[in-house]
Amino acid sequence: MLKKLLILPAFLLFLTISSAKIWYVVPGTSIPDPKTAAGLASSGDTIDIAYSAVPYLAYETKWPQHNLLIRGSGTSRPILKAETFSVTQKAIFVIQGNDVTIENIEFTNARVPDKNGAGIRSEGVNLNVRHCTFRTNETGILAGDKPDCKILVEYCEFDSNGNGDGYSHNLYINHIAEFTFRFNYTHDSKIGHLLKSRAHKTYILYNRFDSPKNGNPSREIDLPNGGLAIFIGNIIRQTQNAENSNLVGYGLEGLTNTAPHDIIMINNTLINEKANGSFVHVQNGTNLLKMWNNILAGGGSTINQSPTILDTMSNYYTPNISDASFVDENNQDYHLTTGSWAANHGADPGYYQDYQLLALYEYDEVLGKIDRKFIDKIDIGAFESDISTTIQETKQSHSLNIKGNCITNTGIAGLAMKISAVTGSDIYSGLIGAGEQKCFENLVPGIYIITARTKDRLVASRKFLIN
Ligand SMILES: [Ca+2]
Fold first, then answer.
1. Among residues 180, 190, 192, which one has the least CA distance to residue 222?
2. CATH 3.30.420.40 fits 13-371, yes or no
3. pLDDT, tens digit (0-9, with 9 covering 90-100), for 205-221
């Protein structure tokens, strides 16, 4: 009996895998469009849509199946161009099933009489969308209320969506459990927001928000019902054309999401080219606003309204964008030059509960993301630039001998020594007497900066590597 019980699950697993099919959508074949494939596919199947030089005429396609992978393939990203939709229709793809993944497809031109025609309408539980483009739809992705749903959108572009009535946006995520938006470029929405999320938890990581094509978005980011919001490593620019003068709005329709109402912004570069408005506008009653290592450059006020806890550290604010010494602000290159104070002045932001807040990546316009390579201490803003702290040494610094993990003061009395990590945090701070040796057993491999001072002057400033 025991033997049979052990064999049964493996048998079922085999059945599940072997029954999944791949349906190939190719123009001129018996499956000429996605809608035909949707009528044939079962849960667990893959739908492979071949690139075609002529865009697919896209009829509204409902996907009730679960665990689907719907992907574009071929030399380029296949384009689904919407036909005229009727009053009962919603989107090019209406995802009704759970746990669906969509990859490498362009959705364009969705329009419906209700004026919120979407590239993708999410009605199921859990959706992943990656490497897709949403261009000139009334809404790029529109997700309905679904309390248990988690949505991940990554490596996508949202270009010029919005009906122009202010109720349709590049993305509009309603009340779901969790929304993660990372490594995307969302730009030039028509009066709507570049991103609107009512999710209880929203993670906005390493994206570019911008309007280089003279788009006139409302807010760059609107989180109207609060909840937990974590922003790390984003480039967020508001141009002169913006309809609303605030870059980030939080809780402004009421803090009705699940508490705590905490908004955390780490290592973002925010640019306001308007003379007015604000960088961050939070609702009264917001519990925590933590802002560390952000660049806020341009006009307007930095923060509107007062959260209960305001935790700010190592931000760089300047009303004159040119004072930030970016590489090329006119072409939106916000890396730092050697003249920028923001270089090497960041600090380790630590954790939010068990969520690490250190910026580990950077948005990259070709790859979506690259690793953030720390050079000296962490920089302020969305990019780490190749700028080293000026290292000063005097003759007397020979008295400081670094060997392995040990540092010896061979000569100077009363030296104060400090060791910092590239993340900006201080590892050690204390006195080291003449002839004294201090060894550090627990240093994680990496680059450290050591400085030694007497009462009057800097004696030594050096980098050393633990590997
Ligand atoms: Ca640095």
1. 192
2. no
3. 999 999 999 889 889 99
